[in-house]
Design brief:
pyridoxal phosphate, globular, single chain, alpha/beta, EC 3.5.1.2, seven-stranded mixed beta sheet, pyridoxal 5'-phosphate synthase (glutamine hydrolysing) activity, Rossmann fold, three-stranded mixed beta sheet, glutamine amidotransferase
């Protein structure tokens, strides 16, 4: 049976997420990936990707477009990257961001500082046999993970990958670089 994935398409690296999920789902007949711009677009989805971008902008646009409550109440799995990790938390260090409270964790925005402080690193991620090339772009970190949150990866600055039930959140951008292992782990987790 196919998997239906939506990508929140308000701001950020939407096209990259759509392309990565399409490739990850290529061998699953009947699967689809679509941009999500309205609450009614969430119907019948198995999963939702909340992309990187600017978390305060995405938060504001979610409210403006009537998406905050529908996304916060979404029952499928959520794949959140960078700004998506910020939004998926239940506590954020910036009052301009209205967190969705999907994952019990505290997230600090822009923990890496300015754009010039962005970097790539080979990261050990729990469940992956080989290190993952992680692209951090003005990335957040989780400073605390709550009950039931599995920490998948951390760096000296903090926690950078977590799983909570069917949700996964990353401070980095797994949709960049062509390594789809984390997408596949996420998709396999939807079948639980």
């Amino acid at each position: 049976m196919g998997v239906k994935v939506g990508v929140l398409a308000l701001q950020g690296d939407v096209a990259e997420h759509i392309a990565a999920f399409r490739e990850a789902l290529a061998e699953r007949p009947g699967s689809s990936v679509a941009p999500i711009r309205r609450a009614e677009d969430l119907a019948d989805l198995d999963a939702l990707a909340i992309p990187g971008g600017e978390s305060t902008t995405i938060s504001r646009l979610m409210g403006k477009n009537g998406l905050y409550e529908p996304v916060a109440e979404f029952e499928g799995g959520v794949f959140a990257t960078c700004a998506g990790m910020v939004l998926s938390a239940d506590r954020v260090d910036d009052p301009r961001v209205r967190p969705l409270s999907l994952i019990p964790m505290h997230v600090a925005r822009n923990a890496f500082g300015r754009q010039v402080d962005s970097r790539e690193t080979m990261l050990e991620v729990a469940g992956l046999a080989e290190p993952f090339r992680a692209v951090f772009i003005r990335a957040p970190v989780a400073t605390e993970a709550g009950d039931g949150v599995e920490v998948l990866a951390r760096i000296p600055e903090g926690i950078v990958a977590v799983r909570h039930g069917r949700h996964m959140a990353f401070a980095f951008h797994p949709e960049l670089g062509g390594d789809l292992r984390l997408h596949r782990v996420f998709l396999e987790g939807l079948e639980v």
